[in-house]
Amino acid sequence: MKRFCLLLLFGIASTAVADEGMWTFDNFPKATVKQKYGVDIDDPWLGRLQRSITRLESGCTGSFASPDGLMLTNHHCAMGCVSELSTASDNLVENGFNAGGRAGERKCPGNLVSVLVGIEDITAQVNTATAGLPDARANEVRKQTLSRLESACTASKNKGGAAACESVTLYQGGQYFLYKYKRYDDVRLVFAPEQAIAAFGGDPDNFNFPRWSLDFSLMRVYENGKPARTPDYLRWRPEGPRPGDPVFVPGHPGSTSRLLTLEQLKFNRSVTFPQYIARNSELRGRMIEWGKTGDEPQRIVQENLLGLENSLKVYRGLQSALLDDRLMDFKTARERELRERVSNDAKRAQQTGSAWDDVGKSQARYREIYDRYLYLESGTGFNTDLFFYARLLVRGAAERAKPNEQRLREYADSNLPKMSAGLLAATPIYPEFETLTFAFSLDKMREILGPDDDIVRRVLGKDSPEALAAKLVRETKLADPAVRKALWEGGAAAVAASQDPMIALARSIDPDSRALRKVYEDEVQARVVASQEKIAKARFAAFGTNVYPDATFTLRLSYGDVRSWTEKGKPIEVFTKLSRLYERTTGQAPFSLPQRWLDARSKLDPNMPFNYTTTNDIVGGNSGSPAVDAQGRLVGLLFDGNIHSIAGSYWYDETLNRAVAVHPAIILTALRDVYGASALANEIDGKGT
Fold first, then answer.
1. What distance in Å separates the CA atoms of residue 529 and residue 484, rounded to the nearest whole number?
2. Using CA atoms, how far apart are residues 217 and 72, in angstroms rounded to an integer?
3. What is the distance between the alpha carbons of residues 234 and 625, in angstroms, rounded to a whole number?
4. Exposure letters 108-126 (e unless 16+ CB within 10 A, then b)
5. What three-state secondary structure class fits 478?
6. What share of the chain is helix, strand, coil (3-state, %, to 5)?
7. How far apart are CA 462 and CA 459, in angstroms?
8. 195, 199, 202, 205 alpha-carbon torsion, rounded to 10°
9. Per DSSP, what are the bridge partners of residue 612?
10. Other C-beta atoms within 10 Å of 507: how many?
C-alpha cells in the first residue's frame, strides 16, 4: 500500500501503473491503454461508443442494445418504473414483467433518457465574466453566465430537434463545458425479472462478492410514438470475456471527492456522514416495521427501503474510509506536496494565496449553519414527495417570472424540462407511507433544531409531528397530477391563490429558506468555489490534464481487465457459476428463487458464468454501464462494486477495488430458457432475424 501511495502522490504516474480514472471521452489516455494492454483506441471507436450510451436521469447509465431503441440497464435502475407500474393486484416487482411485444411495452411515468452528442469548452467565457470580482459577486455572475450559455445553446439546438444543453464544471472550476444532449421523454418498460433473482442475496450480498444477481432490465425509447432509431447500438459478445481480457466501462459516475481538501474531508467525517447514518438508520427501522403490517405496505415500502439500505451501506463505507489512517495520511501527503510546490513558485504562490486556509474557514462557517440549512433548505425536515411538489410549485412560480439569468440555477430554462417531467408525472402517492416519512422528518427537525427554534414552532404550532403530517397529507390535493399541472401552468397567480395546506407550508417557510441559502452561497459556497479554482490552476500548472477530473454524473470511460483479488489472504474467484446459485437457495428471502427458476434448473448449464469482477474504476451512477471489449462489443453489465470500491469516492486501489458485472450469457439464457422471451434475445444478438 505504501508503494501505491507514493506512485499516486499526484496521480501523474498512476495511469501507467493502475487502472485508475474516470476519464472524459475527449481526454482518454489512449497511449497508456496501448502501453498496458496493447489495445489501440481511436476517435471513431470512442465516437461510436459515446453514441451508444444513455444517461437515465434517475441516476444510472444504460446502453442501446438494438437499432430500434432497445436499452439495457440494471433492474435496480428500472426499479422506480417497475414499482410505479405495479399495483396491489399486479406486483411487477415481485412477479417481473415481460411486454411480450411492442404493443405491451408500458410507459414509465416521468422518465427521461439522454445521449451525449457534443461538448463545447466555455472556460474562457466563464473566467472572463468573473475576473476580478469579489467571491460572492463572482459566484452570482458565474451562475448567471452558465445559465445564459445553457439557454442560448439549448435554443440553438432545439431549432434542429429535441436537445438540451447543460453546463459541466470539471477539475473543481479548472474547466467549464457545455454538454449537448439528445433527449427521449417516452421511455417504456420492456422486460424486468423478478426482484428475487435480480437482487438475489439482498442487502447481505450487496457490495460483496461472489454474487449471483440477474440485475438487468430492458426498456425502449420512443420518438413520435414509434421506437427510436438507434443505429449506434452495442453488439453483444455472448461468450463474454476471459480472465485478463481488457474491458472498458463507459457510463455516468455520479460523484467522487478525490480532489477535496483535507478540511472538506474532515467536515464529511465529523458532520455530514455521522448525521446521515444516525438519522437514516432510525428511518430504516421505522420503514421495516411499517412494511411488516401487511402485504400492501410491504410492496409499497420495498423500493424505498432497498434504496435506503444501499445508501446506508455506502455512507458507512465512506465513513470507514475517512477513519482509515492510510487514506488520511495519503491525502495529507498529497496536499502538503502540492502546497510546497506552490510556495516554491513566487508567482503561483501569489495567485493561489490562502486558498487552502480559506476552504477551512468556509467549512467552519458551514458548521455554524449546517443543521438549519440541512433541515430547511435541503428539505430534510419535510421528507414527503408532496412537500417537494409544493416547493417546486412555489419556487417555480416565483423563479419563472424572473429573467433566466437571475433565477436559482435549478430553475434555469435548461433544467425546466426535467423538472416539469418529474413534477407532472402520474407517479403513485401512498398517503400512509408519506405520513410515515413526513412525521419522522418533522420529529427529527424538532430534535436537532430544538422545540424553541422559530421555524419549528411556526411549522408545528400546537401539533405533534405525527398529527401535523397526517393532517397535511390527508388534506393536500397535490397527489393529483392534474392539480399540479394546473398550478404549474397557472404560475404565480395560481400558486398565490392556492389554499392547499402543503402549498401554504411551502410558502410560509420559503423566505427563511431563501435567506439561509443566500448565507450559504455567499459565505460558504462562494469562498469554496473561488479557492478551489485557485487550487485547480495550481494543479493544472503542475500536471495539466494528465490527471482526470472528479466524477460529475457526466459521460466517462474507465479501463481495466477481468481480474479478481485476494481478501484476507484468500483468493476470490473471478467468475461465479450458475450451479452455486441453486446451492445458496434457502427458500427464504433474500435467498429464495422465483418458481420459474426452480422449474428451469434441469435444462440450464450449471457451469454457465453468472457474475464476474473487473479492475475498472467505478462509483454509483455507473450502475447500468456496459462492459465492452477492445472491439467495442458488450461483454457484461456493471451493477455493483465490492466493499472496497465504496472508498473509490476518495481513492482507487488496484489491488482491492473491483467492479461487478452480469455476464451476457446468463442474460440471453434467462430470456430464452427461463422467461420464454426469445424474440427479445434475438433482437439483441441478431439470431432468428
1. 36
2. 6
3. 12
4. bbbbbbbbbeebeebeebb
5. coil
6. 55, 15, 30
7. 9
8. 170
9. 575, 661
10. 20
469 vs 463: CA distance, rounded Å: 9
State phi, psi for 345 to the nearest 5 degrees: -120, 105
For residue 620, give the nearest of 563, 551, 565, 560 by alpha carbon. 551
b/e map 380-404, b = 16+ CB within 10 Å? bbbbbbbbbbbbbbbbbbbbeeeeb
Element (H, E) at 192: strand 186-192
Question: Within a 10 A sphere around the Cβ of 4, how many other Cβ atoms?
Answer: 18
> Residue 187 — very low, low, confident or very high, per pLDDT cuts 50/70/90?
very high
Q: Which residues contact 134 (CB under 8 A, 6 or more apart)?
A: none
Task: Report phi then psi at 545, rounded to 5.
Answer: -100, 25
The phi and psi torsions of 661 (rounded to 5 degrees) equal -130, 155
Burial label, 679 (beta-carbon count in 10 A; 0-12, 13-18, 19+): middle
- Determine the Cα–Cα distance for residues 350 and 343; give it in Å rounded to an integer: 9
What does the pLDDT look like over 207-248, one tens digit per residue? 999 999 999 999 999 999 999 999 999 999 999 999 999 999
* pLDDT confidence bin for 17, thresholds 50/70/90: very low
0.85 surpassed by pTM: yes
Q: How far is CA 346 from CA 308, 359, 536, 539, in A?
A: 49, 21, 17, 15
d(CA 597, CA 669): 12
Nine-digit cell at 427?
A: 407517479
Those residues with Cβ within 8 angstroms of residue 588's Cβ, 6 or more apart along the chain or in another chain: none
Question: Model confidence at 159, in pLDDT bands (50, 70, 90)?
Answer: low
Closest CA to 379 of 315, 437, 429: 437
Instruction: Report pLDDT digits (tens) over 402-454.
Output: 999 999 999 999 899 889 999 999 999 999 999 999 999 999 999 999 999 99
> Half-sphere exposure (CA, 13 Å, Cβ side) for 686?
7
Give buried/exposed letters for 584-593 (b at 16+ CB in 10 A, else e): ebeeeeebbb
Distance CA 510, CA 428 (A): 26
β-sheet bridge partners, residue 182: 115
**Measured in whole angstroms, how far is the alpha carbon of residue 600 from the centre of its chain?**
35
Give the three-class secondary structure for 96.
Answer: coil
Spell 432-460 as b/e; 16+ CB within 10 A means b: ebbbbbbbbbbbbbbebbeeebebbeebb
Instruction: Give tens-digit pLDDT for 271-316.
Output: 999 999 999 999 999 999 999 999 999 999 999 999 999 999 999 9
The CA-to-CA distance between both ends of the chain, in Å, stands at: 52
The DSSP bridge partners found for residue 167 are 178
Instruction: Using alpha carbons, select from 272, 341, 333 the residue that is nearest to residue 535.
Output: 341
Separation CA 65–CA 52 (nearest Å)? 8
Contact 127, 121 (CB under 8 A): no
Question: Residue holding cell 463545447?
Answer: 120
The grid cell for 331 is 491525502
- CA 647 – CA 317 distance, rounded (Å): 7
Which amino acid type is present at position 81? C
Closest alpha carbon to 493 in 401, 425, 421: 401
Q: Tell me how far CA of residue 273 lies from CA of 18, 239, 267, 473, 543, in angstroms.
A: 29, 42, 9, 30, 32
Tell me the C-alpha distance between 643 and 572, whole Å.
13
- How many residues make up the chain in this entry? 689
Q: What is the mean predicted confidence (pLDDT) over 103-132?
A: 96
CA 80, CA 24: separation in Å to the nearest integer?
28
CB atoms inside a 10 Å sphere around CB 81: 25
